[in-house]
Amino acid sequence: GGCGSCWDFAATGAFEAAYLIAEDTVLDLSEQQVLSCNDGESGCGGGWMSDAYNLFISHGAIDEPCMPYGASDAIPCTQDNC
């Protein structure tokens, strides 16, 4: 515990749901990507859903297995390896 990442799960879950509705395809995206790779100050201390969406727009969204959730914003960003 101790990581205030509810905003991250809300944003990622909403994106997954919208994609399912639009494309009839289930996604399992990495919440850890949002915590580790976000250039802003968003992380375990809280953030905005728009921070997650801006990351997806600028870098693309990666799958959960490539960068599993670790409940820390100190985990290095490895999105370029996915």
What's a quick, concise take on this entry?
The protein is mainly α and 82 residues long.
List the helices and strands and how they pair.
Elements (H helix, E strand, L loop, with lengths): L5 H18 L7 H7 L11 H11 L23
Can you walk me through this structure?
44% of the residues lie in helices and 0% in strands. The protein is mainly α and 82 residues long. Helix 1 packs across helix 3. The N and C termini lie far apart (26 Å).
Secondary-structure element pattern, one letter each: HHH
Question: Kindly, what is the distance between the CA atoms of the first and last residues, rounded to a whole number of angstroms?
Answer: 26 Å
CATH architectural category = Alpha-Beta Complex
Q: Care to count the β-strands?
A: 0
The gross shape turns out to be globular
Low-pLDDT ranges: none
Q: Summarize the main sheet.
A: none
The name of the CATH topology is Cathepsin B, Chain A
Discrete helix count: 3
Structural class: mainly alpha
**How many domains in all?**
1
Please report which band the strand proportion falls in: under 5%, 5-15%, 15-25%, 25-35%, 35-45% or over 45%. under 5%
Mean pLDDT: 93
Q: Give the fraction of residues assigned to helices.
A: 40-55%
CATH superfamily: Cysteine proteinases
Radius of gyration, rounded?
12 Å
**What is the CATH class?**
Alpha Beta
Quaternary state reads single chain
List its traits.
mainly alpha; Cathepsin B, Chain A; 44% helix; 3 helices; 82 residues
